[in-house]
Amino acid sequence: GALTISIFLKPPGVIPLGGSTTICCSCQRDSGTFVLLKNGHRVHTSELRSSRAEFTISNATREDTGPYSCHYLEGDTVLARSETVEVQVEEFFLPTPVLSVLPGSDVAVGEDVVFYCTIAEPEALCYLYLEGRVGPIEFLWNEPDYNLSRVHKGNEGLYSCQCFTRNVSIKWSAVSKTLNLVVR
Fold first, then answer.
1. 112: CATH
2. Where is the Immunoglobulin domain (predicted)?
């Protein structure tokens, strides 16, 4: 099959001014080179270590905002390109939301679970993130909850949420603490 590259932010979500994030790129190879691009221009190069390369943005400024992607090279030949992940850097003005899950974070295969993202801001809209995904897995519009029916092993992982309001200008919250969903 074709070589594929995954790209994601760790932690996911909008980054605070002065904060940091790591752009993770991985593929099914254990040697070669990853090139990180921003707006199509080379930013960093890293040798592959155990099928993964990590690029850290520290002390983030608004100039770090933009689309990032990874290319996987062997020698000078590009063998694969990742999707694009958007990095967004903002000031945080809202309280930090709390993510919870019912019936709990340790569930059996086939159970239904509901994630709740709670924030002390009545007009807030929220995103639900799963680490390892390019973007949010769900946009929580009028109901701050997300139902997962008949969970399976593929639903396992680190979840978090982040909220914003969009009155006159968009105001963001920090990302909630992560919640580890285990499916047994």
1. 2.60.40.10
2. 10-90, 102-184
